[in-house]
Design brief:
heterodimer; A: about 260 residues; alpha/beta; Rossmann fold; six-stranded mixed β-sheet; 9 helices; about 35% helix; B: about 325 residues; mainly alpha; ABC transporter involved in vitamin B12 uptake, BtuC; 13 helices; binds adenosine-5'-triphosphate; binds magnesium ion
């Protein structure tokens, strides 16, 4: 549809005290595109995406949405722009139930007395919409009123995914969405990603499981010690090449190890 | 699209989020309360007299008001050690204001000062990042000092005569303090169960990062929580001063610990966003019956303190035990 990318992150730098987490990270994504973001542990993948969602403020660099420069001071602002993220640790409230988690920060309200300041939570409607959402995603939970802490890791993951696609996001970022899952459930997550793409939603998926990335991503971006060092169309690359980039293919001794497999 | 799946997620019939349900914990508390009533009535028939029960309600009302605020603070992941000393400070300052400017302004000033002190606590914790323990310990000391400076350590007694009604009056034979307390309980319960504010408080207590990442303005919610609690502490100071017929710097002494005790006994866990205002209501009732009953059978207040200590430890132990089991 549109010519320019949905999101551009240009030359992002970010330090935590002495730790230079990002030093020249860049990424762009088109509407409906699925991008795989890969890199070694501590390469800065999560930090990079948290800069995009407004959790962290970059020290330098630009963020553009639909070609226009933006700054996100907090996650609320990025969410209102249509950017959703499933964080690596899921970031669910364990003491709340599925409905409350799905609608956290975006609760639906009703005003039974039509008086100002007397809006109350519309539990019925939120519950109804949650059930509908889970059915649409073919996610089974015993009850949407179950506390999240009472659910298995895989189910929690499903709730986190449902929550991220509940509000017509333009971009969904998934940080290791398949790490905690059984093989069968991994397929489901990949299905959801394919459905999002079909709906024109962009997806950035971070994963250490390269086979998952090669399964769904249109393009792969490699981050090494906080810097974007390679971008490849999935069709035009191989796992070997990506592995070399990840472990630092420029360094001879490491490249020997990598190709020695 | 709308094909029927037999494993479709099911919703509870009530539509009330499960953490707010009147759970086994609450039911257990009710049994404890009934048992205590039976035992004390048997040990001393005076326990079950209207006069005594009204007395209990009057005495407990102030604890109830403070415990409501304390519970909301605890649900948000904090706790307040300063409440008792702040009551003393508000007692003396608002009484002096009342003597100079009249009943209404005096009453409003009590709540206003409470709101301001609460907001200050909240800013220290949310914006300056101090742990609640340190921030409110500092406030404890400062409030105590200020109260003694302002009052010179002496009681203040020249408040208008009508002021006494708040603490001693009754409506349809029900003590005014108890009615105020009941209204506070209902209002706080409504806030926590029915409103977006309450939902956000629970979220922050359960997982602050998740609240933050969801776009909730965590700092603002926390400052609101502490301000609300402060306002309630102001209200408690007002009722207590009226009941005591004099203001004094040490009037609320111990209220911080009693309110935490009532909250914890009710089953609201420190720092995990679990519990409710209803739980605390039951906790306050247990504390009240226990104190009154032990008084009636002539157990000294020293032994009572020991008993409360044991009960707090047991309550938390049972709570943990249940959590490990589930
Ligand atoms: N909030 C923080 N404060 C201080 N240092 C941080 C913070 N977040 C990340 N870091 C550091 O920044 C670097 C990059 O971390 P990041 O979590 O972004 O890596 P990652 O690529 O997501 O790693 P993984 O694959 O293990 O999830 C690491 O050295 C990490 O210790
Ligand atoms: Mg990470």
């Amino acid at each position: 549809m549109s010519e320019h990318p949905l999101i551009e992150l240009i030359d992002i730098h970010k330090a935590f005290g002495p730790v230079q987490a990002l030093s020249g990270a860049s990424l762009s994504i088109m509407p409906g595109e699925v991008v795989g973001l890969v890199g070694d542990n501590a390469a800065g993948k999560s930090t990079f995406m948290k800069v995009l969602t407004g959790v962290h403020q970059p020290d330098s660099g630009e963020i553009k949405v639909n070609g226009e420069r933006v700054t996100f001071r907090d996650p609320g602002e990025s969410r209102r722009t249509g950017i959703e993220m499933i964080y690596q640790n899921l970031a669910l409230a364990p003491n709340l139930d599925v409905v409350a988690n799905v609608f956290l920060g975006r609760e639906l309200l009703r005003n039974p007395l039509s008086l100002p300041f007397l809006s109350v939570l519309d539990e019925k409607l939120m519950e109804h919409k949650t059930i509908e959402l889970l059915q649409r995603l073919k996610i089974n939970v015993k009850s949407v009123r179950l506390l999240v802490e009472k659910m298995s890791g895989g189910q929690q993951q499903a709730v986190a995914i449902a929550r991220s696609v509940a509000f017509e996001a333009k971009l969904v970022i998934m940080d290791e969405p398949t790490a905690a899952l059984a093989v069968k459930e991994v397929g489901k997550v990949l299905d959801i990603i394919n459905n999002l793409r079909a709906d024109g939603v962009s997806v950035i998926i971070i994963s250490h499981r390269l086979q998952d990335i090669f399964n769904v991503a249109d393009r792969i971006i490699v981050l090494q010690t906080g810097k974007t060092i390679a971008t490849r169309k999935t069709k035009e690359t191989t796992m070997d090449e990506i592995v070399k980039f990840i472990v630092g293919g420029v360094q001879p001794e490491l490249s020997t190890i990598a190709s020695g497999r | 699209m709308s094909q029927k799946t037999d494993t479709a997620p099911d919703a509870s019939r009530t539509g009330i989020a499960s953490q707010f349900r009147f759970d086994l914990n609450g039911l257990g508390m009710v049994f404890i309360i009934i048992a205590l009533c039976i035992v004390f009535s048997w040990l001393n028939p005076n326990f079950y007299s209207g006069t005594n029960l009204r007395n209990v309600a009057r005495q407990t009302a102030i604890l109830g008001i403070v415990a409501c605020g304390q519970t909301i603070v605890i649900l948000s992941g904090g706790f307040d050690l300063s409440a008792g000393m702040v009551i003393g400070l508000i007692s003396v300052t608002s009484s002096l204001i009342m003597i100079d400017h009249g009943l209404v302004i005096g009453c409003l000033s009590a709540i206003g000062i409470g709101l301001a002190i609460g907001a200050f606590n909240g800013i220290m914790i949310a914006k300056a990042g101090l742990p609640a323990f340190i921030a409110t310990l500092a406030m404890y000391s400062a409030a105590r000092g200020l109260a003694l400076i302002i009052s010179g350590g002496l009681p203040i007694t020249d408040m208008p005569f009508e002021f006494g009604w708040i603490g001693a009056g009754q409506i349809l034979t029900l003590p005014v303090p108890a009615l105020i307390s009941l209204m506070v309980f209902l209002l706080c319960s409504f806030l926590m169960v029915k409103t977006r504010f309450g939902r956000h408080v629970y979220a922050i207590g359960g997982n602050q990062d998740s609240a933050l990442f969801s776009g909730i303005n965590v700092d603002r919610v926390k400052i609101l929580v502490w301000s609300l609690h402060g306002g309630l502490v102001g209200l408690a100071a007002l009722v207590l001063t009226s009941r005591a017929v004099s203001a004094h710097a040490t009037l609320g002494e111990g209220m911080e610990l009693e309110s935490i005790a009532a909250t914890v006994i009710g089953g609201t866990a420190l720092g995990r966003g679990r519990g409710s205002i209803l739980n605390t209501f039951l906790g306050v009732v247990v504390m009240a019956i226990l104190t009154n009953g032990l008084n009636l059978i002539n157990v000294s207040s020293y032994y009572q303190m020991v008993a409360i200590g044991i009960i707090i430890a047991t309550a938390v132990y049972v709570d943990q035990f249940k959590r490990v089991k589930s």
